[in-house]
Protein 1
Amino acid sequence: MDVIAIGLSTLADPVNVLMLALGTAIGIVIGAIPGLSATMAVALALPFTFAMTPVAAMLLLVGIYKGGIFGGSATAILIKSPGTPASAATVLDGYPLARKGRGRAALEMALYASVIADFISNLSLLIFAGMLAKLASQFGPPQYFWLIVFSLTVVISVSGESLLKGLASAAIGLLISAVGLDILHGTQRMTFGYAALFDGVALVPFIIGLFAIPEVMAYYAERGGRRLDVTPTAGPRLMLAELRQSLVTIIKGSLIGVVIGALPGTGSTAAAFVSYGEARRSSPRGHHFGTGELEGVAASESGNNGVAGASMIPLLTLGIPGDTVTAVMLGAFLIHGMTPGPLLFQDHLPFIYALFISIMFSSLVLLALGQLAIRGGSWIATVPRHLLVPLILLLCIVGSFAVNNSFFDVGVMAAAGILGFLFTSGGIPLAPCVIGLVLGNLLEDNFRRTMLLGRGEFGLFFAHPVCWVFMALTLLSVGFGLYQQWRPRRPRDIN
Amino acid sequence: MAVARPAGDIIIGVGLAVGAALVAFAIIPVWVEPVPHAIGWYQSPRLLPWLSTAVTGLLGIVIACRGWLRDERDAMPVASGAKPAAALRAVAMITLAIVVICLLANATGMAASGAIVCVGLMLFGGERRPMVLIVAGVAVPISLIELLRIVGSVPMPVGPFGF
């Protein structure tokens, strides 16, 4: 009860509420600007959390994450351009609704579905995180090794269209993770004599460079890109009967999002499409999906927002990021001297409860700010890019510098930016590289420790039932991922 | 973003394979110190670099072969539709902007150097209205950096003007 009281008192702190609101507002604005993703926004905000308390810092980032996913739906509905990949399924019904003059109703449905799904997802975090952390506290190096192998299967889902390129990106991430002093022997690995690289490549500047700089470079390479055809948000509001009609779909979509979010290796984009597909299959109005159906927007938005809270479960309990955004958030924990995993629940229990209770409150903040954003939705999407992009570049530089007060980190950011630009130009996905970078050291460390414990034999890797479970999950995840990648495409999918 | 034909898979695959070969034969032998007293192969500091490099190289070869066998028109679209010359110019320009800020920051302060670069980029982006340049290119960057420095306690180089 004491920790819950501490959690509630944390929520009463106006700074924490302010950070949550500020984060949500920033997330909505950035998510609503096509080309700027929630991941990029979280990465950019990371260095500015130094002076904050850990709770305030995490609330700012969680707010940006959640606001970003909702903001992405605004552009999906109004300009047929999902602000984030997670909102891609929202385009299918959202944009036709906007063209019919029901843009406002579509945005409101997206907001209410997002808020309900977000609340259910947060509730799942509150219920399951503690249980999983207790189980994970009994893991040894072999169990962790298989858990990380299982987590690496996330690469398949974040590889997009080309699995081979995704795997290459992950392998490059693993190679970059090897930079620094060797964990066992303390010898130098690819540091090129720079003391700044002894602790490895700085994660935050690398992530900022990889995600944000290619967008800046792409803008100047294309000089402005295409013009945006923005549909106004006018039109009749969403009626209560329409919301009630979609409630079952929203709850179903939320649960799909929770299950998918809790598993490393899937993510919000997959959840949105699975939820949309399920709603189309089971709804009596399923045959109207794709022509401007409010239930379609509800299905997609509840699916992708159901992931947000649940994706924190593997991060907080196992120290394993389930997707790209939580990989970036891992950096925030490290900045504040906390290592996510089962020990976090032992050493920082008041922090955990404060975080959970505040995250529950974030659904209300999203509801309030989302209402405001719906009124300004059209305006956000038309912010002049030629004024915005230089400021983003400046934020990247300042943010990278602020991590260690070092211009060397700005150089790391620039190098990662060039790498990211080369990747995007060649169709190589960025997210697997970050996953490889984040998990590389953990993978190597647990592999070597298991081998040492087993005196050079592989037997320990297969000695425990938990290892078998993770091996089976890995095989299932790889099998499902490969099926998704290589299944014969139906004409409807291609369209 | 515009959808356009990708840089050929053959070029990407060959690039990955050549890069991996460079790392394997020029970087790892020189820049990853061996440990003579390591008992097993699994203790070698070169294990992860070797494995990841080998996988990158192999995938590069497979991507190149696939590109060779497949009609380039079947290849998937990618995000950036820029021409190579424009892409190179953008990379050079942004790198230059970063270098300028880093070089000027200690002399003029982070806020002033940031404002200089922002105004330059906005002019390059086609903005000519003086008021917009003053507000968006000077006032916003300086306010932003000062806000982070003073309120956010983010340490930043300060110039002769006190910001």
Protein 2
Amino acid sequence: MGEGPSPRMTLTTQLVLRALLEEPVQEKYGLQICAAAGLPSGTIHPILARLETLGWVESRWEDTDPHEQGRPRRRYYRFTADGAESARIALARASTPVAGLSRLRPRPAGGDV
Amino acid sequence: MSPLEGQPSQRPNRRVSRRALARAITKDRDLAMALADDNYRTSDSALDRALPELSRAVVDNSLEHRLAGIAARMLPPPNRTRYAEEFRSELGDLAQSGAGRWRQVIYAFRQLARARHMRKALMASSQRRATPGSEAS
């Protein structure tokens, strides 16, 4: 698990994965994911398409009658059984180099131990 | 030499096709009337069901829906219907959440601007599916 192909871990991909990982079994529709990830609407669909291809995320149409709801049915996304774990591993790997960069931060003068 | 030279005249064919077209229209009209009649006999709410669709089609002619439609049409053919519906649904959600017209237009513009990336992602997906060896283990 987690050894298969993974998406390019761009910042937006990481934000989408983190947003979905907040409640991994909860289904979310596009605008909810945008809000949770703090991304502008209209930016997440290419990422979700890639995640879906990798089998990390699955989606389905809302099971309601649009006429009764008075709005078009939503497309809901959530992690697959293995997807959440793969995402956690990929995020941990992706965040490692960022954590390593903290060592390069300038230290206060005279603070050299 | 003219490119039309040596070809049979188009006039007789055109007359024949007009007659065929007229016959087809009459036949289709009869069929449509029969179907409509049957539909109303079996379901009185046929018109009730059709009206929201028609009104939505009129509303969907707005700038944001047209832009979202163009964005969906830029995607690979097998994905167009799904994403057209998804974009429409999100525009509906935006409208319901009280987002103003411009926010909806901006949403649609973003979809349009990202359509190339989306197309690339979806093409890669279909290639991946076509090549089983590259699928996640």
Protein 3
Amino acid sequence: MRQLFLGITIFFTTLSVVFAFLPLGTLALIPIGIGIVFGFLTIKKSEESQAKWVKILLAITLLSLVIVVGKEVFIDDAVEVDQKFETQKVQSKNEAQKELEDMEGLE
Amino acid sequence: MSITSGFAQIKPGEKLVFAASYNMSGLMTQLAQVTMETETMKTSKNTFLHLSCEAETFSKWDSFFKIRDLYESYVDPATLKPSLYKRNIFEGGFTKTEKYIFKSDGKTVVSTSKRKNSPEKNNAFSISNGTQDIVSLIYKLRMVDFQNFKIGQTKSFQLVFDEKEIPVVVKFIGKETISVGNLGTKECYKIAIGARTQVLKGKDKNIIWLTADAKKIPALIKFSIPVGTGQLKLSNASGI
């Protein structure tokens, strides 16, 4: 049973780190939560000498939690000025004006 | 210049900014910013109201799935009857452009569309009187006088989307007080949108909240599409 819990902890700790660095927002809380729960369960099932590595995994998961919460609190969602898109909008408007003028000419 | 019909006023210079979220494994994740703007467009003979709706992914998402969508409609300022509709989408590398010219007879649409790696297609099809495009329909909804609607009361519209005319039925569900971005907390009309299309899913799962005042600002839009659910939440309204 300990081996199974340890495997799950390792998997979700890895996933927590990956999710924490991807722009997945609070979605990262899912692997983090599972990682923490199975981390504690693994510690409970472990001898004191075996618990050291699990505690390190748990610390990594908690660090991922701090990164995710920090990103949510301190980094605002922002849209960057996309020059290509801005040009496309102006172009589209100019084309529309011409098309509307053409339509009026046909009436 | 302001446009008044019923109780609604749609002015040029209006700008509504929404945060679009998508439901990922039960958690709403903010993906993009949606901006709806109005402005006057003058030609030598007419004055149009240019309604635009653009969607842009937040910069942190751009490297994973970049979205740059632009929907535009040029309408009669008084009636919101469309003359020209344009759609230009870029979604994670997929592109599609569409242009509908609404003929002055009010019965025909001439369309031009092009998908990525496909040749341009030209088409002409018939529409009913009063058919709207998707952008002008959202604004048209704001011109409905929901004040006297009873719960469950419906109103029908005709929408042209993907070169097909689709009947749309909106149903007044009731009133709810919700957060309306920088406008604080307001009482809103809760309206369910139903359409006979594959684009929208579920009964009463596509809902729009409009402020229960003369301006009827869209405060929240919840949608259910074949690939999941999401919402657009008003974050900032200006020029209203």
Protein 4
Amino acid sequence: MDPAIRQSLQAGEQLGLRYALQIPQTASSGSGPRSGRRAGSSIDFQDYRDYQPGDDLRFIDWGIYARSDRLTIKLFREEVAPHLDLVLDGSRSMGLEQSRKPEAAALLAALLATSAANAQCSQAVWLSGEGFHRLPNDTLSPSAWDKMAWESARTPQQSIEILPPKLRRLGVRVLISDLLWPGEPLPLVRRLREGAAALFVVQLLARADATPPEHGNLRLVDSETGEETEIYIDSVIAKQYASNLAMLQQSWADACRQCGAQMTTLIAENLENSLSELESIQLLAPA
Amino acid sequence: MIPLLTYPLALIALATIPALTAIYILRNRFRRRQVSSLVLWRFHAQSKAGGAKVHRLQLPLLFFLELLALLLLVAAATGPRWKLPQSSRPLIVVLNDSFSMRALQDGASTQDRAKDFLQKLFRRQPPPYTRLILAGAQPHSLGSTVARWSEVNRLLSQWKCWSSAAAMDSAITLASEIGGGQANILVLTDHKPADQMISNPRLEWHAFGRPLDNFAIVNASRTAFGGQDRCLLEIANDSDATHSTHLRVQAGSNTVQSSEISLGPRQSQRLVFNIPSTVPSLRATLDPDALAADNEIELLPPVRKHVRVRVALTNENLSAMVNRALDATGFRAALDQNPDLVIHADDSPVGSNAWDVTWSTIGATNTYAGPFIVDNSHPLAEGITLDGVIWTAAAATNVPGDVPVILAGNVPLLSEREDFLGRRHITLNLNPALSTVEDTPDWPILFWDILSWRTSEMPGLADSNARLGTEVILKTDREPVAITQPDGTQISFPKVGDELAIETPMPGIYSVVLGPATNQFSVNTLAADESDLSQCASGQWGKWSDDPVQRLAETSAVWIFGLLALAFLAAHMYLVAAAQGKS
């Protein structure tokens, strides 16, 4: 793995110690180390309520029955095991040369994984390629991850069609991608949102993606397909580029809103100063 | 095709076009840049999809504006001319430059009246452009064409009226050639045309002269006459009535003559008198009259050149005869050091600057009684007849390179040649003991011719007095020459040949500095025809015909190209400013 990526993972791990993943109330999956909001089968008492037919007779508080002749059920806290699925866009556009996008993506993934650990949350890291595959050692700390590379010629949309990730139900899902591919975003958002406690879409752009190049003649090379096109950049073209980017972001925002997902955009070269955006969408909270 | 090599400015401007193109191509070449995805550039990719496969060069509008401006400047530098309709014709003015135009009446000269007429013509009907031609002894054009009266007036300052003649016909011919039948020709003079029926529809002849009585000095000379100078003055009465005037002749500060001269109609009087050769300047004046220029002359002492002669003949009798003949010429200098001429019996070297006469009598036993062939155009044979002469000479043939002057059959009796230093070598094939040449007038004439020719080739002025308009010959040793004219104008000739012809455009005393020596010569207005004012007249002959159709004349279109170039550059600046405002 690229040493720069490894270094970014370690930096993200250090940075993530300051944060904890915000777990939605609906996020639970089996018994786990974390108490849920609902009643469950832990040993932590939560409340009483009247007995209803079908309740487990083992939880009847016989002392209350002796004193008040009423059947009352003891409720205990639910024990939940929250889970974070990090869905990483492994396409080549995330490894854009002459930008900090690959390092920023690694740092962001490591930060989220570490903050999830802080929130007693399990994790899985899915990287798109010829289908979605888990990163080796993704359950360990980020510095132990391996084979994190941005070499796929396929978009996440195409990858999910080939081999979708096995995402845990009621888990928190975070998609990290630049979202720069053609096509309708709604199917992908809907598919990721399905069965999730929450879905966060983090658009990670290089500064070169966010701002059009300076005026002049350019031979543009698509980092994913290698397709080339020549264009003269002037103020009109620059304005149209900015408009296209805004339209793309708006379509993703609309799709997220329709599916109840949260979306934010971060600039790779300014990532450390943009983490408050992740707090504002209630993905992270200070630890 | 534009002959660009004849327009250096256009060539330079054209050379900037490839430079500009190269700058833009290098500046606008496509830089490679990787982007995350072309999805955001899809608008451009879509427009390309249906277009040409070959990408044409992406050059901005600014480039084409600059290119157009440069091309317009190239075109402007070639001086384009368009034919445009003209309402009036160009004007060529022929100006009589003879000194008769200086004749005064009522305080105004003929030249002044002609200038006034020309100025009024410009006010009334200014021509598109004007050219002036001076009709002096030879016609010549004054500068190039001008448009405004101020420019014409500036050129008129060269109209001095100091010529001794006015070649009006030649000047009109020159004007016709320049005008090419398109220009109006205006003649400003003081007399009527020879043919009063002017057939040229483009010629107008205006005369502003008045028939006036005039006394004039029409001839004056001062020549060497032994130890004295002989002077000749001729005064003429150019009028149809008897008039008198007062003649004053001053030799230096002394008055030589002061007398009243009365002459009948068209009469002239010659005065001949001698003055000492030591008198530096002789001035003669007449009473003031209509033309002041011919009332005064100044004569300087004639040029007297003497030849240092060394006679190196071994025959004493012959040497004595030659010395007597040389002394009789009056050209011989008293000294014979550094001789200018050596007469000897062999052809031994005689010095760096000397001519020589080789007089060989060896084998001269053949007697010739004629006929003799004499080249009278040669300076050595001037005045020689050889009538009844018996000439004994050697029966030689002409040496190649020698110019025979006197021949008896094919035997050269007198010949000469010039060497590479310009020295003359004269060969005399004569045995005087058996000849009768020394007993005839041809003997002293021969020696006079030899010394006269030698003096004429010695450095210095040929004459000290000249008529206005003639050339004064100056012989030099290739030294620098500086001439100061009577009005103070100085002309320098750093490099000259053996001979310099000095022009005399005005009367007065000219100074000539030749090496360390300073010489002077006098120029006098001596021209009987110009002094005769009785034939002067006023009036107009001929008239420019009206133009039946509108005429096309070439007009410079440089300004149009310049304006267009400026407009493109202004648009360029606007676009640059607008682009900066947007960014």
